[in-house]
Amino acid sequence: MAATLRHVAERAGVSVSTVSRAFSHPHLLAPQTVARVTAIAQEVGYVPNPLARGLITGTAANVGLIVPNLASRFFAELVKAAQARAREAGQGVLIAGTDGAAETEADAVRQFGPQVGGVILCSPRTTSARLKAMAADRPVVLVNRRVPGIPSVVVDTAAAVRAAVDLLADGGHRRVAYLPGPGKAWSDGERRRAVRERCAELGIEAVVLPEWEQAKGGHAGGVEAVPELLASGATAVVAFDDAIAAGVLTGLGDAGVAVPGRISVVGCDDMQALECRPRLTSITGRIGDAGRSAVELLLSLREGARGRSVRLPAELVVRESTGPRGAG
Amino acid sequence: MAATLRHVAERAGVSVSTVSRAFSHPHLLAPQTVARVTAIAQEVGYVPNPLARGLITGTAANVGLIVPNLASRFFAELVKAAQARAREAGQGVLIAGTDGAAETEADAVRQFGPQVGGVILCSPRTTSARLKAMAADRPVVLVNRRVPGIPSVVVDTAAAVRAAVDLLADGGHRRVAYLPGPGKAWSDGERRRAVRERCAELGIEAVVLPEWEQAKGGHAGGVEAVPELLASGATAVVAFDDAIAAGVLTGLGDAGVAVPGRISVVGCDDMQALECRPRLTSITGRIGDAGRSAVELLLSLREGARGRSVRLPAELVVRESTGPRGAG
Question: Which UniProt keywords apply (chains A, B) (predicted)?
């Protein structure tokens, strides 16, 4: 087996990214580190593979990153973390936003062309077959999406959503609404299923509220959903994300409905929980960690490592927007 | 004078980006459009310059974009619009976030290397001398920053900030506070000066509140500023941006202070005005237009056009968070 960056890193007692950087951006490291790494590379017969050579020549010294919506705080956080991690490895990030359109995703991958050595895809809606075709051409890592055979980083919010349902059931809630995000994202399906399944297991009722139009934005979607929520008879709602949950809080406030007295509200992704009044019970998504992990996974693929999938834990953080049924 | 893309576009009756695309991504256009454009290019003797040739070979078919904070909604909106405009021209966007550090900006420009044909810099804090050095090496367009000799796109929020002060003075306010953003951004200086100067012209008092730490984020900064605001004796506050203004509203709500009854609040950039209760009076920054204009300016520079500066108008939008002094 050919020596990889990882072998060199282990022997030198440094990180893989330090080894990578010793070849690509030696001026960023202490001279003695560069000397040790290059000596060990020679010793173990490390030869950069074509993609790794791209790192050195600069032809593939970029990570491609495709996200559905650059103006969403959630994806902006992911981009920011991925870009910071890539920079540590001496790489730039070539980014494209697709507005969730599968067509645009394929275009963006083609457009990156030889400028990127691999692509991180946050692709909530592209078909699995299409993703597999993309992954056949170049290293691909998926974020918050699982497709057999393609390495991925997934934040496991479903388990925390189940914990939220447990919290609500413990508080005496017997009917829990789920307010979806727009357009059938993969993670939306996971969260919806978690609410339904956990409610069924606990013998309480789940109600899935109608989707709203993506173009409105999450906050406006949440405001708009309030009449349906009130009509549903649910005393608690789990929203697809914090932006939507914040909109629900705003709409309930406008309607004079007490939170959590009459309706308890749970968000997801923990992007603006502390900006809400009452402060929002939410699920910490750690999307920054996911962005960093995705870059690491992609760099390791480019070094010839086998693909693997990373599952990051998520956690329910209970704040002020949830309480016992009928507390108000 | 050599023929430029613009000449070809005018003769062919199509946009500059269509001409650009006819050379770089002909498969995206109707075959008859490509045929007409290339025929006219031959006719007028259009020869792509080295950078434009890069467009065709793909070596410089990217726009570099540097923003201080990728996780801010304001810059995410700019990135999204720039990226959409670049895609129309068959270009990718290579993006870097710098957390506002001038060091990182220079690194990012170096790192883009030959992969970009020009750079759009949202550089609120880098020195003018440094920006000039960057612009000497390659086409550079600044956003919301003016440096003599470098083309720029500026959203003229200062005029709208003056209009906000007029509104407040008309409502009987005699002491107006300005709540700065962190770290002395160029646009912060513009807005601060506008408040001070307009107050002086109207014979009312301006108070500049202390800055807060950038790491906290705008909303938390706004919440934190509330005790100082109350202590200042001001009956109205203009905040550097909407995130900060939203935090002020939250903090005033926590303190039981009526808005606009006791304190009127004005935001800037209009990024989350409708999500606030009361709905925030704010200044529409049109940052999407700025992102698009910056890409167009950069593409025209790369086609050999002379640099120019674009000033986009901003507008005060009066909503519920402002009212006459002492209305409550």
Answer: DNA-binding, Transcription, Transcription regulation
Q: What digits encode the pLDDT tens for the residues B88-104?
A: 888 888 887 776 666 67
A83 touches chain B (CB under 8 A): yes
Task: Look at B113 and A253 and tell me if their CB atoms are within 8 Å.
Answer: no
Q: How far off is chain A from B96, nearest CA to CA, in Å?
A: 7
A71 close to B (CB below 8 A): yes
Owning domain of residue B176: 156-285
The CA distance from A169 to A291, in Å, is: 33
Q: Which residues of chain A have pLDDT under 50?
A: 1-2, 49-59
The verdict on residue A266 lying in a domain is yes
Mean pLDDT of chain A: 86
Q: In Å, how far is A126's CA from the nearest CA of chain B?
A: 19
| Tokens 């083609």 found at | A110
The CATH code of the domain that includes A18 is 1.10.260
Q: Give start and end residues of each alpha helix (H) in B13-72.
A: 16-24, 31-44, 50-57
Return the higher-pLDDT residue of B30 and B208: B208
**Closest Cβ–Cβ partner in B96, B220, B247 for A92:** B96
A chain contacts of residue B77, beta-carbon cutoff 8 Å:
71
Across the interface, of B71, B80, B97, the residue whose CB is closest to A97 is B80
- Domain membership of residue A302 (yes or no) is yes
Average pLDDT over residues B36-51: 67
Torsional sign, CA A278, A283, A284, A290: negative
Beta bridge partners of B66: B96, B121
